[in-house]
Amino acid sequence: MISKTKISVAVLLALIFFSVLAGNSSADIVSDLKDQIATKQSAIKELEDQIAATQKQIDASQSQQKTLSGAIAVLDAERKQLLAQINVTEQKISAKELEIKSLSISIDDKNDSIQKSRTGLANTIRDIDLMESEPLIVSILNNKSFSDVWDFVEGAKNLNGALNKHISDLRNLKVGLEKNKSSAESARQDLKSLENELSARKKIADDNKNAKQKLLTSTKNQESTYQKMLKDQLAKKDAFEKELLDYESKLNFAVDPNSLPQTGSGVLHWPTSAVFITQYFGNTAFATKNPQVYNGMGHNGIDLRAAIGTPIKAALSGVVKGLGNTDLVCAGASYGKWILIEHNNGLSTLYAHLSTFSVSEGQNVTTGQVIGYSGVTGYTTGPHLHFTVYATAGVKIMSRPSSVCKGTYTMPIADLKAYLNPLSYL
Questions:
Q1: In the chain, what are the domains?
Q2: Is 412 left (phi over 0), alpha (psi -120 to 50) or beta?
Q3: Which residues are CB-contacts of 144 (< 8 A; sequence separation ≥ 6)?
Q4: What is the rounded CA–CA span in Å between residue 394 and residue 255?
Q5: Which of 222, 253, 239 is nearest to 392 (CA)?
Q6: 221: region left, alpha or beta (phi > 0 left; psi from -120 to 50 alpha)
Q7: pLDDT digits (tens, 9 = 90+) for 388-413
Q8: pLDDT tens-digit profile of 44-59?
């Protein structure tokens, strides 16, 4: 029996030894992967610095869009920025894949260690069972020397210590395994989001290239033609807004102010990560006295600075009531690509001038979920997000004929009292 005990202890020590060797080998691989990830992160930082510098160039050039050469220069700078953003996203995808690989190795290691720990635990329990099957006094009498008795007692003590260690190790390994599995699942979700982002950015870059070609073709590279185009576009935008305001001012939807969240409650989240307001709500004496109401005066939302390709996020969980593109009928006169989300607290939010969508009609979205990417569709003097907040009861998605645009457009249309100041709820 004593020999069995000594053998079992030796087996346990061997298992621990080989486990350490395997762990060291895996640790080297994981360490190498972390070094590669760090290299990727450094490259991402450099690219993001380039993007920031390009954005400053674009901001400084916005006023130059009043000339054809200036507009082309801005488009070129935006394309440069978009290509850098694509590179950043590719680097992030590569880094995320390395992270998932590292986590997978750690998961495999822990599974292997758990199996070894279970084997050692089973061996220890079996040997303890063998020792306890014979009374201690009988074991002592069966041994001929004090040395053998001492070895027997030490063996029993070692087995009990090994048992407790294996149980503790097993618990710790399981906790670590669950954490690694959770991290891996989160990383896989991040990877999927990055892959969607890459696809969107590539499409935006293609659109930018087409926009430049379209501008050159439509103006025949003539400054005078470009100036006439700008003048006609502004007149068309003003006429369309007047046409829409005339219709909205006649609506009389039932809007109960008591059904709305309390102003200042902060129920909405900012739809962009970086917040810089370029135009406020209303900007009229009426709006100043009644900051939560629009009433057809001034600006019906807020504008947020957002470079082309900036991820736009849902301000609150809700349902995508609809999305569309007014440029299909009223090119350059209104919202361009827009998304309307209805929330369950009496509010709805509009996101306009987008370049691409990441959601579909009827889809449930969560707070902070990317729903699209910013752009310059509709009437804009530069890339930004137009963000409007409505009382849900007072807004509907309608298809309306337009004498200005010579066609039927589809977009959210609201009773004037349904327009709310976004800053009252952000």
A1: 2-206 (no CATH), 254-424 (2.70.70.10)
A2: beta
A3: none
A4: 6
A5: 253
A6: left
A7: 999 999 999 999 999 999 999 999 99
A8: 898 888 888 888 877 7
